[in-house]
Amino acid sequence: MQSVINIREVATMAGVSPATVSRVMNGKNRLRTAAAQRVKEIIDQTGYVRKKQQAVAGTILCFYEQGEILTQHAGALLHLLDERCHLAKLRLVNIRSSKHAPIETLIAENKVVGVIYLSGHKYKSDILLPAVELNSYEAYQTYSSVDCDDFSGVVDSLRYLREQGHSRIAYFCDREINRAENILPRVAALPAAYHAAGVDYDGTLICQEDFAQNQHHEVIAAALDRWLALPEQPTAIVMTGDAYAASFYGLLAERGLKIPEDISIIGFDDDDQSKMVYPQLTTVSKPLEKMADMAMNILVNAISGNDNGLMKVLIKPQLIIRDSVRKID
Questions:
Q1: Does the pLDDT value for residue 138 go beyond 90?
Q2: What is the pLDDT of residue 31?
Q3: Which of 277, 279, 281 is nearest to 258 (CA)?
Q4: φ/ψ bin of 301: left (φ > 0), alpha (ψ from -120 to 50), beta (otherwise)
Q5: Residue 138 burial by CB count (10 A; 0-12/13-18/19+): exposed, middle or buried?
Q6: Do 163 and 282 fall into the same domain?
Q7: Strands, E assignment, 71-202
Q8: Domain that residue 32 falls in
Q9: What is the 3-state secondary structure of 202-260?
Q10: Which pTM was predicted?
C-alpha cells in the first residue's frame, strides 16, 4: 500500500532538510554518499512517492547584481532559493543586474506575488508587494532582511586566536569591500569586535586600503612589510575574505614565513579558495541554507497575509577550524 508520508517526514527521519530530499530524488544531490544513501533507504522503507507537481501559486522575482563581490555565495543562494520556491509551489525568476524590463511588465507577465533583493541589490520597486532582502546589510532597511551575523563571525575568529595564545592579531580589509553593504559589519566595528573577543585593538595592525578589484596583491605585500617591521610583529592575521588567501600564502612564503608555524591566518566566507590553499584555511562559513530558509519563511508568510512587520534577522555563522592556526605559548 502506498504510504501517505510527506517529504518533511522523510527529511526528519533522515536528519536532512526537505530540500535535500528533493535533491536526492531529482538526482541533483551533492551530499556525501552516506547521507544520500540514508535518504534513499528511508524512501524505500516508507514507500514515499512524491505527488505530481501542482501548478505554481505564483512567481517570486529575485533581483541580484552582476559582478557582485560574493558571486560564489550569490550563486549558492540562488540555487537554494530555487529549491525552496519549488517546495512552496512557487516559481523563481532571477533578474540579473539593473538592466531589465519595467517592473510592471515583469509583474504582469509572471504573476508575481513577492520579491527577493539579493546581496545588496540597489534596485528597489515602488510596487507594493511582499519583499525580503537576503545577504544584504543596510543600516536603514526598507524591507525585512536576513543576513549572516558577520560581526559575531569576526569576534569568533579573534576569540579563537586569543584562545590559541595570540594577542598581536592583524586585520586586512580593502575599503571598497568596507563600503559594500553586505560586508560592512565585518569592518565597521572592529574596535568593538576586538574588545568583545578580549583582544587589544592596535590601529597599527589594521590595514584598510583603496585598490581596484583583483589588484590586492601589492597592497597585501605592503601591509605585510609594514607589520613585519614593527617592534612587536603580529603572530596572526584575520582576512575579511578568503579571496585574499592565495596572495597572503604566497607573499608570506616569499618572506620566509610558514603557515601556521611562523604566523597563523583566518579567512571569512569558506569559499573554494579556503580549501585550495595548503595548509587549508581556517575560516568563517556563512549559514546559507538557514538564511535561504528564513528569507523564504518571511516572504511566504507575508504572501499568505501573515506579515509580522519589519524584521531584521541575523544568523550566526560557524568557524571552520582547519590547519592554518597554531597554538602558541
A1: no
A2: 52
A3: 279
A4: alpha
A5: middle
A6: yes
A7: 90-96, 112-118, 131-134, 144-148, 169-174
A8: 7-46
A9: CHHHEEEECCCCCCCHHHHHHHHHHHHCCCCCCCEEEECCHHHHHHHHHHHHHCCCCCC
A10: 0.77
Q: Using CA of residue 20, residue 96, residue 173, residue 193, what is the dihedral sign? A: negative
Q: What's the average model confidence in pLDDT over 1-25? A: 71
- Which phi and psi angles does 215 have, rounded to 5°? -120, 35
Report which of residues 101 and 254 the model is more confident about.
254
Residue at 310 is within a domain: yes
Q: Is the pLDDT reported for residue 79 higher than 60? A: yes
In this structure, are 256 and 213 located in the same domain?
Answer: yes
Q: Is residue 275 part of a domain?
A: yes
Cell numbers for 160: 579563537
pLDDT band at 127 (very low <50, low <70, confident <90, very high): low
What's the order of all strands across the beta sheet hosting 169-174? Answer: 206-209, 169-174, 236-239, 264-266
pLDDT bin (cut points 50, 70, 90) of residue 126 is: low
Amino acid, res. 253? A
Same domain, 161 and 282: yes
The answer to whether the beta carbons of residues 120 and 181 sit under 8 Å apart is yes
